[in-house]
Amino acid sequence: MINNSIVSKSKQLGLYTSMYLSKDLWLENLEGFEKEQAIDMMSQNLEGIEYLLKLLKLDFNKSSFLDSIQNHDRDSLIDEITWFFQKDVFGKQLKNKYGLYASLVYAIATLTTLNKGVVSSLALDVTYDSLDDIDGWFEVVKESIYSFFSYLDYMNSNINNIKNFLPEILPMVNDINNLEFIHEEFTLENSNFYLEYFKTINKIFDRALNALSPSFFEQQDRIERGKELINNLLACKPGKRHWQDYEEICIKILNFLFVPPFSEVKEQSRTDSGDTRRDGVLPNNKYSGFWEIIRHEFQSKHIICEFKNYTNDVSKDQLNQLRIYLSRPTIGRFGMLFLRKKPTKKLLEARKRAYEENNILILLLDDETVVEMIKMAIYANSAEKVLEDLKIQFELTY
Fold first, then answer.
1. Does 225 share its domain with 196?
2. Which helix (H) or strand (E) holds 313?
3. Whole-model pTM?
4. 362 and 226 in a common domain
5. Are 366 and 285 in the same domain?
6. How far apart are CA 103 and CA 355, in angstroms?
7. Contact, 109 vs 18, CB < 8 A?
8. How far apart are CA 379 and CA 375, in angstroms?
9. pLDDT (tens digit, 9 = 90+) per residue, 249-296?
């Protein structure tokens, strides 16, 4: 049976893999700021691979993956694509765990993104004959054209799989097949026709990538927003002096993590020891996935989030304040307590008593866990997966 969630994650894994490979190919030709920028993007893509493999429950040996890339001969993107077919391990793992459809989705997404690089290099803003002074340009272009048509043959041979698993890129394949094309070997005389042909195909590929991942061209912005939140969180000092800053950061993090699927994060003020504190409230009107389970199991109409910017350990009294709040029938019995350090044994025992006596579950989210949630949201759009794992861990160790 086809699992749409696995299709989506396999597709995203292919996008990150191909982006890493294409950046790696050109890295040695870059210098200065451009090289630093490429290394930073490769690091982000590698992190994306890592988090998607976590979601897919597949093994990831980072050093082995990096060694395999560095230890093969590749002088062009075509060599990179050849390597992908010969050495790729992610596709094999996907096939063994989820079936052929998952590995095909991954392969098609990877090859489509890699060949976008091929097509972009062919869609030059100059005429091909103006490159005549560059040694070897003619053979490079011929090789790139051959690679592209090999890719197109691969896509056409998998047209039924594309219809079943990746219908969003079917228009791209059809559009390319329907283009008028000169069925002649590439020569200097017909080179400018090829140039116009690949300029058109380049635009088609842009639409295909956007269809493969609607947020594909917005991903860099999402990474930058997430990294800024992580930096702000870790730079915020624990203690009463900075509790308002911490609340502000946590509210922004909730918006980043959970809007959508929730429509908003409501802020609710209350008085605590003479100070006005803010809670984050997520109105839980969701009827699918993790939040549906929470709504059903704990009658949670609203998800209450409390923020404790304490220098010292958070005590059981602070947890019990949230516990009392969650006893109200109009709220529900599930909440999240944000704290700066790992919970103490006493705090865990107080959390356990809340569950035993009132069937109230409070998830404890220290800085390390919040950072993990932000990264999971950046790369896999699945911050809830961290919460789900925490819930399962509590249940298994209860």
1. no
2. none
3. 0.81
4. yes
5. yes
6. 42
7. yes
8. 6
9. 999 999 999 998 888 999 887 655 555 567 899 999 876 789 999 999
The yes-or-no verdict on residue 34 having pLDDT over 70 is: yes
Q: Please, are residues 295 and 286 in contact by the beta-carbon 8 Å criterion?
A: yes
Indicate the length of the chain as a whole number: 398
- Regarding predicted confidence, which is higher, 161 or 22? 161
User: Mapping DSSP to helix (H, G, I), strand (E, B) and coil, where does residue 335 land?
Assistant: strand
**Of 182, 214, 246, which residue constitutes the final position of a domain?**
214
Range of the domain at 187: 4-214
Is 102 within 8 Å of 6 (Cβ atoms)? yes
26, 8 Cβ separation under 8 angstroms: no
Sheet holding 334-339, edge to edge: 266-272, 275-283, 302-308, 334-339, 361-365
Q: Same structural domain for residues 171 and 265?
A: no
DSSP alpha helix (H) spans, the chain: 4-26, 32-56, 62-70, 77-87, 90-98, 100-122, 137-157, 159-165, 170-178, 191-212, 219-235, 243-258, 289-298, 316-325, 345-358, 367-380, 384-397
